[in-house]
């Protein structure tokens, strides 16, 4: 943790240190605390790139990617109610027509990511993408949970290395197990004031209280890191803004639209970001191993 803090050089928030360097229990408490007393429970919307918008709550949200042939939505907030009161009004604010959502790319099979998908699937008929094992997470929930939060119907199955092309944009997917059995991470080509930039989106954020899944998370993290480096990634985005100071970055763009985009880290900045988070993940690997879990 000290190594991560030293590397972060006085700006821990933009590296997600207040979340990802904590123990799994502390990280959960941090999020719950932010929902109760901080920005977590508030609505945030903003334009991160020429063709990528964040719409959601402080603690979890959706990303909308605009292509020449419609929209791709990454995640869907917690439920239908949040789609109606947060996502759809947010899209309207930015002139994004929900009828143009052609694909919903879910990061993983947890309710804060797929919760709004059924309503969107029923209403606008987009394709919904998720990995097989994470479709199963949704499908194999106990009846009570499934009745309380109906999931989308299984549609497209994402495998590692798959690509999705819509109009002028091609996204590439990588399976990164650890947070869930087959979390889906993405390589998303965006534009920053006209310049093409590649960003990665790690599909899972929190680690669990055991060395097996934390080890998986660590391995997946390195797979994503290396593939991002190879592809020339220059930035990161996440459905959980706490992973990289995303809310602060959105605000910076609002305050100083002509300044350099804080979501663009550059190739060296991408390396630096991953180096810092790697130390936090190693800390949890050491903790869970030491605890004998
Ligand atoms: Zn999750």
Report on this structure.
With 293 residues, the chain is an alpha/beta fold. 41% of the residues lie in helices and 23% in strands. It contains 11 helices and 12 strands. It has helices at residues 2-8, 17-20, 24-37, 80-93, 111-114, 117-124, 132-139, 143-148, 211-231, 246-255, 266-290, and strands at 43-49, 52-57, 61-67, 70-74, 101-105, 127-131, 156-158, 163-166, 169-175, 184-192, 195-201, 235-237. Strands 1-2-3-4-5-6-7 form a 7-stranded mixed beta sheet, sandwiched between helices. The protein has a 5-stranded mixed beta sheet with strand order 8-9-10-11-12. Strand 11 (195-201), helix 9 and strand 12 (235-237) form a beta-alpha-beta unit. Helix 1 runs antiparallel to helix 11 (266-290) and helix 9 packs antiparallel against helix 11 (266-290). The longest helix has 25 residues, at 266-290. The model has no long low-confidence stretch (mean pLDDT 97). The site of zinc ion has 3 residues, from loops.
Order of strands, main sheet, comes to: 1-2-3-4-5-6-7
Helix-strand string:
HHHEEEEHEHHEHHEEEEEHEHH
Ions, cofactors and other bound molecules? zinc ion
What's the helix count? Answer: 11
**Secondary structural class:** alpha/beta
Query: Could you say which overall geometry the principal axes of the C-alpha atoms support?
Result: globular
Number of strands: 12
Q: What integer value in Å does the Rg equal?
A: 18 Å
Q: How can the largest sheet be summarized?
A: 7 strands, mixed
């Amino acid at each position: 943790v000290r190594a991560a803090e030293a590397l972060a050089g006085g700006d821990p928030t933009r590296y997600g240190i207040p979340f990802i360097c904590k123990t799994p229990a502390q990280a959960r408490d941090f999020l719950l605390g932010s929902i109760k007393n901080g920005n977590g429970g508030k609505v945030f919307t903003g334009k991160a790139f020429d063709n990528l918008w964040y719409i959601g709550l402080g603690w979890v949200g959706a990303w909308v990617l605009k292509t020449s042939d419609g929209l791709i939505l990454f995640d869907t907030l917690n439920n239908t109610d949040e789609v109606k009161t947060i996502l759809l009004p947010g899209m309207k604010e930015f002139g994004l027509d929900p009828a143009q959502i052609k694909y919903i790319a879910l990061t993983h099979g947890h309710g804060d990511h797929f919760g709004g998908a059924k309503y969107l699937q029923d209403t606008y008929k987009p394709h919904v993408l998720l990995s097989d094992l994470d479709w199963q997470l949704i499908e194999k929930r106990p009846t009570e949970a499934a009745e309380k939060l109906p999931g989308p119907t299984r549609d497209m199955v994402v495998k590692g290395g798959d690509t999705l092309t819509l109009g002028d944009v091609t996204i590439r997917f990588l399976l990164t197990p650890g947070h869930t059995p087959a979390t889906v991470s993405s390589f998303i080509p965006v534009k920053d004031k006209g310049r093409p930039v590649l960003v990665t989106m790690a599909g899972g954020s929190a680690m669990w209280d055991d060395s097996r899944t934390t080890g998986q998370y660590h391995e997946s993290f390195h797979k994503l890191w290396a593939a991002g480096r190879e592809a020339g990634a220059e930035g990161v985005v996440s459905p959980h803004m706490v992973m990289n100071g995303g809310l602060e970055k959105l605000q910076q763009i609002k305050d100083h639209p002509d300044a350099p985009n804080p979501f663009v880290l550059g190739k060296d900045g991408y390396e630096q970001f991953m180096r810092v988070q790697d130390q936090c993940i190693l800390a949890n690997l050491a903790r869970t191993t030491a605890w004998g879990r």
